[in-house]
Fold this sequence. Notes:
Domain Protein kinase: 688-961
Distance between the termini: 49 Å
Helix content: 10-25%
Low-confidence stretches: 1-30, 581-667
Membrane topology: Single-pass type I membrane protein
Subcellular location: Cell membrane
Largest sheet: 21 strands, mixed
Structural class: alpha/beta
Keywords: ATP-binding, Cell membrane, Glycoprotein, Kinase, Leucine-rich repeat, Membrane, Nucleotide-binding, Receptor, Repeat, Signal, Transferase, Transmembrane, Transmembrane helix
CATH class of the largest domain: Mainly Alpha
Mean pLDDT: 82
CATH architecture of the largest domain: Orthogonal Bundle
Protein name: Putative LRR receptor-like serine/threonine-protein kinase IRK isoform A
Bound molecules: 2-acetamido-2-deoxy-beta-D-glucopyranose
Amino acid sequence: MKQVQLILLLSVSLVLLGPILVISIDLSSFNDDVLGLIVFKAGLEDPKGKLSTWNEDDYSPCNWVGVKCDLANNRVSSLVLDGFSLSGHIDRGLLRLQFLQILSLSRNNFTGTIAPDLLSIGDLQVVDLSENNLYGPIPDGIFQQCWSLRVVSFANNNLTGKIPDSLSSCYSLAVVNFSSNQLHGELPSGMWFLRGLQSIDLSNNFLEGEIPEGIQNLIDLRELRLGSNHFTGRVPEHIGDCLLLKLVDFSDNSISGRLPESMQKLTSCTFLSLQGNSFTGGIPHWIGEMKSLEVLDLSANRFSGWIPKSIGNLDLLSRLNLSRNQITGNLPELMVNCIKLLTLDISHNHLAGHLPSWIFRMGLQSVSLSGNRFSESNYPSLTSIPVSFHGLQVLDLSSNAFFGQLPSGIGGLSSLQVLNLSTNNISGSIPMSIGELKSLYILDLSDNKLNGSIPSEVEGAISLSEMRLQKNFLGGRIPAQIEKCSELTFLNLSHNKLIGSIPSAIANLTNLQYADFSWNELSGSLPKELTNLSNLFSFNVSYNRLQGELPVGGFFNTISPLSVSGNPLLCGSVVNHSCPSVHPKPIVLNPNSSYSNSGSSLQNNHHKMMLSISVIIAIGAAIFIVIGVVVVTVLNIHARSSMLSSAAPFVFSGGEDYSGSPANDPNYGKLVMFSGDAEFVDGAHNILNKDSEIGRGGFGVVYCTVLRDGHCVAIKKLTVSTLTKSQEDFEREVKMLGKIKHQNLVALEGYYWTPSLQLLIYEYLARGSLQKLLHDDDSSKNLLSWRQRFKIILGMAKGLAYLHQMELIHYNLKSTNVFIDCSDEPKIGDFGLVRLLPMLDHCVLSSKIQSALGYMAPEFACRTVKITEKCDIYSFGILILEVVTGKRPVEYMEDDVVVLCDKVRSALDDGKVEQCVDEKLKGNFAAEEAIPVIKLGLVCASQVPSNRPDMAEVINILELIQCPSEELQ
Ligand SMILES: *[C@@H]1O[C@H](CO)[C@@H](O)[C@H](O)[C@H]1NC(C)=O
Ligand SMILES: *[C@@H]1O[C@H](CO)[C@@H](O)[C@H](O)[C@H]1NC(C)=O
Ligand SMILES: *[C@@H]1O[C@H](CO)[C@@H](O)[C@H](O)[C@H]1NC(C)=O
């Protein structure tokens, strides 16, 4: 506000004073500069007070910070405010600076768009707006008044749109830099007519199309940077006529073809990068003519053939990168003449033969020959690695065919920082002199045939940060001296033959983040001190012979069960069995996830719970396969209802202690409640009637009734004709089923038996089946949220895992057999009933049980394949998809049948799997969970049984998928 008033005041005073000071024309226009700069300042935030010297009362701005004046007329000629942390818009106030030549506002926080008349300020020669937050297109006409412009940089902003054609009218232009914006479109055709251009930097944009011919007009061009765009086509044929070119960067485009021969004329060129394009053909022999080359990067193209000998003529070359091409042969001997060479990367080609010994005579700092077919046949050692050579810092010979032993004097490579010999056939032991490599910070000897033990001298390698020795035949103990390598963050010793215990000294490696000791023969217990490792995020000791208690605290409270698996003698909450008892086949659960926490507390209460609640509902699903069976079942109900009238008065009206009913009287049934004290309501109406029917399935009809204490139960009346087991067998099986208790399984509470009537009494879940919740309930109030759905999937997995652990196959998993309790916990019902059948074959299984279309594993159709618990995992996979998509496994459209898992699979192939998630969720779901869950569903629903994971794996995967932040809620 104050500033606005002040400006008004200034303008007014100028108007008033103007006529008086007619003689002094200079002075009045001089004040114009003050006014312009104050207006400019008024629109800015200046958090560091950099412009505090800009005082509106000053007579002249020439002493202000960042301002310079022309001595001839005392007018502002240069405004340089680089790195002042200014923000705001570039204000039109600057237009008043009629004599401005240099405007540099680089490295600030200016926002907004570039004004179309910006370049009409004064006679601007240099404009640098780089490294701000300017956005929008570069205005089309901005370059129309640029006759004096020599340097323009808009680099490192967020500018969009095209490079305006008007640029071609800036005849004085020498330097243009629009790099690191989001410009697209083609290069303006007139650009090659700006003969004065010396430097062009358009890198890091989205520019496209071909680089136009005609570049040879730019006879003064020294630097051409077009890297990281989408340019296609070829390098302009006559580029070599830009004889002064020193730097050419076409990296990371899609330029193809061979290199134009004219390039050999670029004898001043010091830097040539064509990296990351699609160039083909051989590396031209004339490359040796480009005598000034210091950096030559042809990596990641499709160059083939041999490396030309002429490369040895490049005696200024310091960096040569030919990696990731299809180059064959060996390195030419003449390269020894590249005496300035420091970095040589020819990794990932098809080079073969011996490692040229001259490589180590050249004073190289970095050598990467990784991923070729070099081999060293001079048994017994990699003899050409010199052992008293000081310059080498990086040596990467990984993924070749080197064999023999490591030279014992390797410690002589005293400057070595990175040594990667991974994935060769190197044998023998790790030389003790490794400890002399004081600068070594990456050591990778993994995937070789090293034997012997890890030398305790390794303690000398005090800079070591990464040590990878996995996949060898290393034996012996882990040396405690390793604690001296205090910089170690990454340690992988897995897949060896290490013995002994994990030394507690490891706990002194305070920077350790990743440690892998898996697949060794380590024994003993894990040192408690390991919990001190505060930076640890992965610690894998799986598949060893460790025993005793897992450390408690720190990282170990959240350690993944997978990281400790395969050590049968380990105990602790993570491996889900308490010390010291040993569980034969533990379900591996993460005790720290919210679900299993509630799980264990529920399980503790289970004994109290099992009396009360309960029942089963099995709403018959589409029984397409055995319509006949249904008909028989319905007929049976009628036949039975007359028989029932004799049994019912005794069973359901008395309120006596049914448990004591005479078991051998054929007219009087025997009611057994596993939990003693439940009774039916006195004078209850005949419960087995149509009114109380709540569902029917392959095994019979389900009714619901109320116990005397007010609890509901579900009663399943078994279809007797299918059961030919004796009472003894029946009772044994049912009692066994009654012992199966899990928070995700519907509890069996009791049974009733007469030769003609068998009832099973289950806990009753009023909220109904998963099928009802997903498909029948239209009210949005009952819409299952993503979090509820995830909980249901995880709960079902736990229930099913428990069944499989009990060696029970469900055979009939489907959404009508899963019930949801009030806390959204799913409970699987109808399990174990096949055990009541006299015999089990494909025919019975497929007709009687797997009647629900869409859930049935394909192996049911194939008589020669044994049906295993994997058939449940198939059904579970379909259930996952059903819960996530809210669609039935098979849906009938007007003239089409949509099979859910085929539909989801093809959506995944098309990359549109997110669209499969139930649209009723309106996008309210965590895609980072939903997508992997869908993939898991598809894996579970694999056609081939052996491709399906087992349930313990499924639970582990689900717990990994679960977003950590959500897990806390
Ligand atoms: C730009 O502003 C942001 C916050 O608004 C600040 O963190 C950053 O340091 C500023 N950048 C410069 C170059 O001043
Ligand atoms: C060593 O080389 C192998 C194979 O080229 C590579 O996979 C590995 O990441 C490298 N090791 C390190 C520590 O970079
Ligand atoms: C860790 O280092 C300290 C000091 O060097 C030493 O006293 C201690 O014994 C070491 N701890 C282990 C577990 O080796």
